[in-house]
Amino acid sequence: MKIVAIIGSAFGSKSRVAVNYTINKIKEVREDAEVDVIDFSEIQFPFADGREYLQHEGEVGVALKKIMEADGLIIGTPIFQASMPGTLKNLFDMLPVNAFRNKMAGMIVTAGSEKHFLIPEQQIRPVLSYMKANLVPNYVFITDQDIIRQEIKNPDIEFRLDRFVDDFFLLLDTYQTMLQQKEAEYDF
User: Fold this and answer.
1) Rounded to an integer, what distance in angstroms lies between the CA atom of residue 179 and that of residue 183?
2) For position 186, what pLDDT does the model report?
3) CB 21 within 8 A of CB 7
4) Considering only CA atoms, which of 42, 64, 44, 43 is closest in space to residue 53?
5) CB of 137 within 8 A of CB of 170?
6) Which residues form the NADPH-dependent FMN reductase-like domain (predicted)?
7) Among residues 77, 172, 163, which one has the least CA distance to residue 124?
8) Which of 21, 73, 86, 188 has the highest count of CB atoms within 10 angstroms of its CB?
9) Residues of the chain with pLDDT under 70
């Protein structure tokens, strides 16, 4: 099972801390999960220019192919200026419209205050839905007070991230089973 965790900004550390916690939890509970991380602080994506994703080379081409081959996506992102970072939107623009078909996707979102709680619901979820993702209904929303000095300080956040991993795999396993049953109906 291939999972890609996307850290949707080159700046800041809170999303990275939350995603890394989640990856460690996945490794703890799912030995069959192969997790790749796409971290915008490590890969410089060019501006989307209309090329098909297969035309990109190097580490960008590898990252885009990993996303396309994944069974599930975990998108960790901060909220900047009441919106998703441009780097994350740019990544979405580099992929085909049906890039997330048959993939489970979940969100882990960090923000400076609770005022941004609905941004994932109003801005990120519609893009993921448009790209045909099957979405984990609940996302994990984390504020600045919850992560201090690269550590999660709020035990409720750890609980919600643990629950997120459980829900993510429950839904992913169920969806994959349903797909296999549907495919088995075809006798060719």
Assistant:
1) 6
2) 86
3) no
4) 64
5) no
6) 1-144
7) 77
8) 73
9) none
Give the containing element (helix H, strand E) for 172: helix 155-185
Instruction: Return d(Cα 110, Cα 79) in angstroms, integer.
Output: 6
What DSSP element (H or E) covers 62?
helix 58-69
- Give the CA distances from residue 185 to residues 70, 156, 166, 176, in Å, rounded to whole numbers and listed in that order: 24, 43, 29, 14
The CA distance from 165 to 105, in Å, is: 11
Query: How many whole angstroms separate alpha carbon 74 and alpha carbon 5?
Result: 5
User: Cα–Cα distance between 94 and 71 in angstroms, integer?
Assistant: 19
**In the chain, where the domains are located:** 2-186
pTM of the model: 0.94
- 2-186: which CATH topology? Rossmann fold (3.40.50)
**Number of residues assigned to the chain:** 188
Q: If DSSP codes are grouped into helix, strand and coil, which group holds residue 33?
A: coil
Say what the pLDDT of residue 187 is. Answer: 74
Look up tokens 């396993």; give the residue.
173
Residue 137 corresponds to which amino acid?
Answer: P
Cβ count near 25 (within 10 Å): 16
